[in-house]
């Protein structure tokens, strides 16, 4: 019978804490969204990230991780798509303008968009694949994925809220259009920099 053991729980909690609170594509975009749109308008983005990571973790538990083992080219395709999409997002952030814009010109990421983004988020894949293969909360692969999905949600949501909250707190400082432009460009560059592990791997494969 499959069950969840508590012996590996501290490791699971620590892994979720470290991976969700440290910089990455999600947190960089949440910081920028907090600055540009405020915390309340960023809530759908926050909720979408949490649910997206949960769904990704569960999908690995039902066999998607095994598919990457047997067909590594699929993972390479995912990495290329991730690079392309993150570069697009970096450009969108870097070219953002003032905080106060006309209705409809700019908006925060929507709930379903944040869910979908996790499927091309390299850090999210690293999180769930590492958790699935190194943290053993259950003898069952699928039960382990369920347990880690719960941990990621409970631990991760407050962590990513801190990034959006910090961005919101900076709105007064960045109300000046010039400062905001500098901030958005810096966030875009950080987003691009987060791609360097993938870039190194793809360069190594082509060498």
UniProtKB/TrEMBL annotation:
> One Pfam family from the UniProt entry?
LysE
Going by the UniProt record, its keywords in alphabetical order are:
Cell membrane, Membrane, Transmembrane, Transmembrane helix
Give a yes or no for keyword Membrane in this entry. Answer: yes
Q: Where are the transmembrane segments?
A: 44-64, 71-91, 146-170, 182-203
Q: How does it sit in the membrane?
A: Multi-pass membrane protein
* GO terms assigned for molecular function: amino acid transmembrane transporter activity
What domain of life? Bacteria
**Intracellular or extracellular location(s):** Cell membrane
Q: Which GO terms describe its cellular component?
A: plasma membrane
Q: Name one GO biological process term.
A: cysteine export across plasma membrane
Protein name per Swiss-Prot or TrEMBL: Cysteine/O-acetylserine efflux protein
Organism this protein belongs to:
Paraburkholderia fynbosensis
